[in-house]
Amino acid sequence: MVYKFKLVSDEVSNFSREIEIDASASFLQLRNAILDSVDYSKDDIDSFFLCDEEWQRQEEITLEDMGTSSDQDVWLMEDTPLNELIEEDGQKLVFVFDYLTERSFFMEMKESIPGRTLADPICTVKRGKAPVQNVDMDEFEKQIDQNLQKMVSDDLDIEDLYGDTQFNDDELGSGFDDLNFN
């Protein structure tokens, strides 16, 4: 069986990739196919996350065991075949390619194709330019500051946060009249 995955980015609107891979291939093979399709280095630590319908991260599939507690299952890319964790069309995943800044690709298993096998994964659709793999941290922090300032200036009115700037005794009600502060 062959799985067809579609990848998109929240950083680049016209970016997408489609990758076909054998269902028995490992998550490591999928990782390498993704990195090859976007011309990224394979030197960085990255992870897959299985997600629910609202993109909430569930199970993590890691490149290396980071010493998690022994009561948690550790899914390693090299040892985990795709069909062990992905069983149905529509399965959502996140591939975090930059841990420091939490940058990632959003993925969905679009289709499973029974009766077909692939020796090696292939990228069948390549649209747009991928976001850069690693960002300059000074630039990244500057962008975050600009985004926060824009959110504050565009969306928030100080009165929405704290209410009226005028104090009104009647707003407190009579519940405090009986208190003795002596």
Automatic annotation (TrEMBL):
<protein>
    <submittedName>
        <fullName>Uncharacterized protein</fullName>
    </submittedName>
</protein>
